[in-house]
Amino acid sequence: MFYEGPEEVSRTGPTGPRIPLRRSLGPTGPKIPPGTQSGEGTLSIGGGLVLMFVGVIVDAAGLFLDFIYIGFVLNPLLLTPLAWLIFGVVLHHNGVSMLSGKRAVAGWLTLVAEFAPGLGALLPGWFAYALFLTAAPRVAALVRSIMS
């Protein structure tokens, strides 16, 4: 109906206007920078606090469910997979790989502790895993700076 000129046509795509994304963001979240393809970045303090909060909630819910004798069924079927997914999403959005290096070993140890009957109720596994993910890289950097 109205002629918009070539400028307007070139700025719109077939599905609507083109929205420029920042170079570090993809449509599903942040991209891992080219220098750290292994995902060996550090977790932000905010992301660590979110994971610690989720860990406390999941561990408290597991303890409560074990106390009323249904945790042996619901812990491995509901709480552990849900916590694993939340941890994976938060780590991915912070550009940190969940399954590489020491984080993978700590993650698998957390899963083994959570699936072991009775042991998952006694140990705050998810909180400890979140604390490890948040504090370990910072402590290692602090020790390296002190030693050098």
What do you see in this structure?
This protein has helices spanning 5-10, 45-67, 71-93, 102-115, 119-122, 125-147; strands at residues 12-13, 16-17, 25-26, 29-30. The chain has 148 residues and is mainly alpha-helical. The chain has one domain (43-147). The strands form two sheets. The protein has a two-stranded antiparallel ribbon. A two-stranded antiparallel sheet has the order 3-4. It is flat, with a radius of gyration of 21 Å. The model is unreliable at 5-10 (pLDDT under 50).
Q: What is the compact description of this entry?
A:
Residues 1-37 are annotated as: Disordered. The protein is mainly α and 148 residues long. The protein is built from six helices and four strands, in the order H-E-E-E-E-H-H-H-H-H.
Give the topology.
Blueprint: H1 5-10, E1 12-13, E2 16-17, E3 25-26, E4 29-30, H2 45-67, H3 71-93, H4 102-115, H5 119-122, H6 125-147
Antiparallel strand pairs: 1-2, 3-4
Helix pairs in contact: 2-3, 2-6, 4-6
In spatial order, strands of the major sheet run 1-2
- Give the uncertain stretches in residue-range form: 5-10
The end-to-end span amounts to: 70 Å
Largest sheet: 2 strands, antiparallel
Q: Strand portion, in percent?
A: 5-15%
How many separate domains? 1
Question: What is the SS-derived class?
Answer: mainly alpha
Helix and strand sequence: HEEEEHHHHH
- Total number of helices: 6
| Silhouette | flat
Which percent range fits the helix content? 55-70%
**Radius of gyration, whole Å:** 21 Å
Number of strand segments: 4
Overall mean pLDDT stands at 79
Region (Disordered): 1-37
Transmembrane segments: 41-61, 67-91
Keywords: Membrane, Transmembrane, Transmembrane helix
